Structures are given as C-alpha cells and as structure tokens.
Amino acid sequence: MKNLSLFIAIMFLVVSCKDKEANSSDEQHQHVETEKSEETKKKPLSPHTSVMEMIGDAHIHIDYSSPGVRGRIIFGGLVGYDNIWQAGAHNATWIETNKDLIINGDILPKGKYGFFTIPSKEDWTIMINKNWNQHGKDDYDENDDVIRFKVKPSISDEIKEHLEYKIDKISETEGNISLTWEKVTISIPFKVNQ
User: Fold this and answer.
1) Nearest Cα to 177, choosing from 49, 86, 84, 51?
2) What predicted TM-score, i.e. pTM, was given to this entire model?
3) Where is this region: Disordered (predicted)?
4) 63 touches 90 (CB < 8 A)
C-alpha cells in the first residue's frame, strides 16, 4: 500500500512538472510571437539612415530620414513644387564635413549644416543652412543660408522607392553628392578646399 501511494505521488509530481514545462514553453512562444508582431508594427515608414565617405582627408557625413514613395506622386504632389523641403522626412537632413568644401564656386566652411531644397520642374534650388538641428522646415530662415544655388534634376524611367543620398569619390580632392527619390536625381559636385 505504501509503495502504491509513493508511486501515485511520484506520478503526480512528474505530470505536474511536465504541465509547467509545457505552459512555460507556450508562454515563451507567445512572447516571441508578440515581439515579432510588435517589431513588424513598429517598422518606421521613413527609416533614419546616414551615408559617409572620405574624399582625401575630408570626412563627409549626411544624416536623414528616408521616406518611401508608397504609390504616391512625390514631386509636384507630396513635395509641392516651388516649396521649401527639408530633403528628407521628419527632422531636417544635415551634412557635416571636417574640411572646407567648394560647392558651386563657393566655400562651405567645415562644420554641420541643414540641407534644404526647393524642387521645381525645371531646376532645384539647393540651400545649405547654418541651422542644422530643426524639425522639418519649421525654423528654416533664408538669412542662415551659407550657400544657395540651382541644379538641374535628371529624370529616370525607374522609380527609386526610398529617398537615398550617395557621396561618390571622384578623386582625392573631388566628389559628388546625389539625392535620388521617385524618378528624380539631383547631383552636387564639390571639391575639397586645399
């Protein structure tokens, strides 16, 4: 009789432990599933990103949020023609250089700057502004522009889904900054001031 009682008690413990393990495993599985679905939900529509390049001794860094086309008309639609645009989503895009650069014949002293544009069908106005730390274009002031010039956009047949900046090294003293989004690319050649 004692042996039977002991056997029943041991079996009860074994079954009880297995139920706890199964429940724990289910909870862990549910926890992982919840994390995955939250990650999927939280994926930003305009991810924050940056690009950096060395041109000779010049370290150039561009920081921006990269919105997607998502089936919308971008230039002349979401980004209205002849309106100031912070050249990205959310906070103003900024550019930083540790060396003076020559852009469109003007010197951009080493430092950190806001990067703004005014897109239009024929040409774009580029503004490099002292106020780099601002939300959107809310605090943009033309009086803070260090350099302001125009460029001609090039139009592609292919759509670039997410806004992308590139810094291409041409030589030890020359490079090119490009912005591509939707079907539009603008290019900004520069030289490192020696």
Assistant:
1) 51
2) 0.77
3) 23-47
4) no
Alpha carbon 60 to its chain's center: 16
Strand order through the sheet with 111-118: 48-55, 58-65, 93-97, 111-118, 124-129, 145-151
Model pLDDT for residues 21-53, shown as the tens digit of each residue:
545 444 444 444 444 445 555 778 899 999 999
Classified as helix, coil or strand, 105 is coil
Q: Which has the closest alpha carbon to 116: 141, 93, 135, 139?
A: 93
Q: How far is residue 149's CA from residue 19's CA, in Å, rounded to a whole number? A: 72
Structure confidence by residue, pLDDT tens digits, 127-149: 999 999 998 898 999 999 999 99
- Secondary-structure breakdown of the chain: helix, strand, coil percentages, each rounded to the nearest 5: 25, 45, 30
Residue 171 and residue 112: Cα distance in Å, rounded? Answer: 23
CB atoms inside a 10 Å sphere around CB 55: 23
Long-range contacts formed by 26-29: CB under 8 A, 24+ apart = none
Phi, psi of 186 (to 5 degrees): -120, 145
Question: 50-84: per-residue pLDDT in tens?
Answer: 999 999 999 999 999 999 999 999 999 999 999 99
Residues 6+ apart with CB under 8 A from 103: 128, 147, 149, 188, 189, 190
Mark residue 56 as left, alpha or beta (left: phi above 0; alpha: psi -120 to 50; beta: remaining). Answer: left
**What's the distance, CA 26 to chain centroid?**
37
